[in-house]
Specification:
By secondary structure, this protein is mainly beta. It has one helix and seven strands; from the N terminus they run ββββββαβ. The protein has a domain at 24-108: Thrombin, subunit H (Beta Barrel), CATH 2.40.10.
Length: 128
């Protein structure tokens, strides 16, 4: 028995995301149909986000995502594993809108009473 191509170099996996994700933990309200979920954004880009919910998401549907200081975002539920979900925004945030929103999260010092979001990462590429 022979195995073909056992030493062939692995091909790089193509990234499916259109925008770089930033690790931002932020409170979120998530509406899917008539169901409402409390949760958090785990990471976010101009085109989508990974969400964590307190109660499991049990059905698919159009998602309306409410984040501090942004208008409601209409999204498509891409995947879910009960307490985590990935959503794609139906309309991408503009670069300026996303940058302004993300940078405003940095304006609060750690431990600030009104803090709703924190950054885990903000690479230099964000500012270009």
């Amino acid at each position: 028995m022979y195995l073909s191509n056992t030493f062939e170099a692995a091909r790089p996996v193509r990234e499916r995301r259109r925008s770089h994700r930033f690790d931002i933990q932020c409170r979120a309200r998530i509406h899917i149909g008539r169901r409402h979920y409390a949760g958090y954004v785990h990471n976010i880009s101009r085109t989508g986000a990974k969400l964590r919910t307190i109660s499991p998401i049990r059905r698919a549907g159009t998602v309306i995502l409410y984040l501090p200081d942004l208008p409601p975002l209409k999204c498509e539920l891409c995947w879910t594993d009960s307490y985590n979900a990935g959503v794609a925004f139906k309309l991408s945030l503009s670069a300026r809108e996303f940058r302004d929103w993300a940078e405003s999260r940095l304006a609060f010092p750690a431990g600030h009473k009104g803090l709703e979001c924190t950054f885990a990462e903000l690479p230099d590429a964000f500012h270009s």
